[in-house]
Amino acid sequence: MTRFSKYTALFLLASVPFLDIPDYYMHVLILILIWGFVYTSWSIMGRFGLVSLGHGAFLGIGGYTVAMLWNFYGITPWLGIPIALILATIVALIVGYPCFQFRIVGHYFALVTLALAEVVRLVIIGMREYTGGSLGMTPQRYGEGMSVYAFQFVEKDYFYGIVLLSWVFGIWVWNLVDNSMARYSMEAISDDEDASASVGINVTREKLKITILSAWLTAFGGVLYGQYQMYLNPDTIAGISVSLQIVFASIVGGMYVALGPTVGAVITILLSESLRILVGVELAGLDGTIYGIMLILFIIFLPRGILGSGWAKPLEILRFPKDKPG
Amino acid sequence: MIFDIFLVEAIINGILFGGVLALLALGLNLVFGVVDVVWICYAELAMVGMYSIYWGNNHFGIPLMICVVIAILAVALLGFLIHFLVIRPILGSPPINQLLVTGGLLFFMQSFATLLFTGDFRNLGLHLPVLELAEMYISFSRLIAFFTALLAMVALYLFLKRTYLGAAIRAISQDREVVVLMGVNPQRVYLVASALGGGLAGIGAALLILQYDVHPTIGISFGPITFMICVLGGLGNMIGGFIAAFVMSQLISLGGFFLDTEWGYVIAFVFFIIMMFIRPQGLFGNRS
């Protein structure tokens, strides 16, 4: 993507709030950006073969920590966010360090992380006196619901701005990793751990760095989602369902390309929203059915996703060039 | 004293619950041991079986036992088709893709069930008696489930030990390359194992529907615990999986007794994560 088209695209995205678009479309755009951000965060580690089926854990930690600190102690999200990120780091370390030290990879890594996602979801449900359990919880509204202090923006235009900035930041981090030494060592590790250790790569440390980075961004995504919806539910923000959703949307879009996961978010959200409008709610499950078939076909025929595959030439413009030499 | 009675009741219920889990884990282990693929959607196969039984019995009025047989066959066919249509084309790609493709199937089956049956909870409306034994209450359906699961496992054991196909299945899980030299067609064995795995999920479905309402996301309640049991026992190790099922069901049951059901599951999952670090090859596996 040339510099010019990149800035044009950004300019267009940034001018959306001034176009006076109906609330519903703003809502869809915000959702796409939030999930695009979360999927991008996942693919930062997922592209290196660290297929985590447990990122719902970090989403849940992010969303719930900030909301609970706010509701129970009145701590502003500006302090709550760093605390949530620290918590996410601790969890990532507790699970990641032994995993990487004991060489738990592939299936086993996927299943350990899956267990982690379930643990977080069940802990949230189990603490029902504080979290509201399966019924979910609402962050307490501050004044009119428009406050920088409380990180609450009832006006969609404002939230759009925040979410857009976060998403751009996520893409920027993705590219930073893509152009860094870490990428080369991670690619070497995913090819052959022993060989990369023998050339002096600290396998555990490299993996942990990338995992923690991914956990931070995902936890922040959870905060954004919670503060936007002003409602948290353990089944939608933690647990297996959302974890799988993160993985699959990234695969469909293409996790080896910066904008791939975002394209995954666009496709999945547009699919469910348009089907809801076209067919209505009486055919609940239709979007998931189509989506499931799509996923199966993608993994069989296009495992590199829409943007990652060669045939997507017309979409070439969405790809960032790999111009950095090794 | 009364406290002890409840504790014993919890332990017994844990054992009975472990039977069904062991059966599901056995089916998953069979598929993994032979085809080397983890079916993330395994519990969803049981969900399909539960719906088939419910549908046949409630909608067409077919007698329950016939429904059960039909459902077992249907899920076995589904297992066959999953391998034939979905797994076979990507046997050569990285293992994680095979795991993920069954995740796609999970989405598909869940949503398709929602499409056909909506998200409502449904049950057969059976009222099986509850046995009272020395002030303990044990539901009859759990007893049936436990003993049927044991029977199915013994039958599978005999099949694996006594028949040619069973020997081929065991051989292929020991050495994939050499088995071909012995004149075994691995593709055929894969299909048989997948169908058998499906059939076991079908039997699991028949046992689960006696105790639980069926709804599209019921697989999520049994799926994760089933994988963890398999990994804990050593993936592909059937005896290990069998024992691990009872360990996990005791943790859930006792955790539920002392704290809350969710905490029982939390304890079981945390136990799983810790065990993965201590014995990544599984409780009873040999490091290969």
Mean of pLDDT of chain B: 84
Please describe the biggest sheet of chain B, giving its number of strands, its sense, and whether it closes into a barrel.
2 strands, antiparallel
Q: What portion of residues of chain B belong to β-strands?
A: under 5%
Report the count of strand segments of chain B.
2
- Using the CA coordinates, give the radius of gyration of chain A: 20 Å
Radius of gyration of chain B: 19 Å
Strand content of chain A: under 5%
**Which runs of chain A of at least 5 residues are low in confidence (pLDDT < 50)?**
320-326
What string, H for helix and E for strand, traces the elements of chain A in order? Answer: HHHHHHEEHHHHHHHHH
What is the CATH topology classification name of chain B? ABC transporter involved in vitamin B12 uptake, BtuC
* Overall mean pLDDT of chain A: 85
**Between the first and last Cα atoms of chain B, what is the distance in angstroms?**
48 Å
Query: What count of structural domains of chain B?
Result: 1
* CATH third-tier fold name of chain A: ABC transporter involved in vitamin B12 uptake, BtuC
- In spatial order, strands of the major sheet of chain A run 1-2
For the largest interface, the chains and their residue counts are: A-B, 47 and 49 residues
Description of the molecule:
Chain A is mainly alpha-helical and 326 residues long. Chain A is built from 15 helices and two strands. In chain A, strand 1 (146-147) and strand 2 form a beta hairpin. Chain A has a single domain, classed as ABC transporter involved in vitamin B12 uptake, BtuC (Orthogonal Bundle), CATH 1.10.3470. Helices cover 71% and strands 1% of the residues of chain A. Chain A has a two-stranded antiparallel sheet with strand order 1-2. The model of chain A is unreliable at 320-326 (pLDDT under 50). Chain A is globular, with a radius of gyration of 20 Å. The two termini of chain A are 20 Å apart. With 288 residues, chain B is mainly α. Chain B has one domain: ABC transporter involved in vitamin B12 uptake, BtuC (Orthogonal Bundle), CATH 1.10.3470. Chain B is built from eleven helices and two strands; from the N terminus they run H-H-H-H-E-E-H-H-H-H-H-H-H. Chain B has a two-stranded antiparallel sheet. In chain B, helix 1 (2-35) packs parallel to helix 5 and helix 9 (218-232) packs across helix 10. The mean pLDDT of chain B is 84. Classes of the chains: A mainly alpha (326), B mainly alpha (288). Chains A and B meet through helix 4, helix 5, helix 12 and helix 14 of A and helix 4, helix 9 and helix 11 of B.
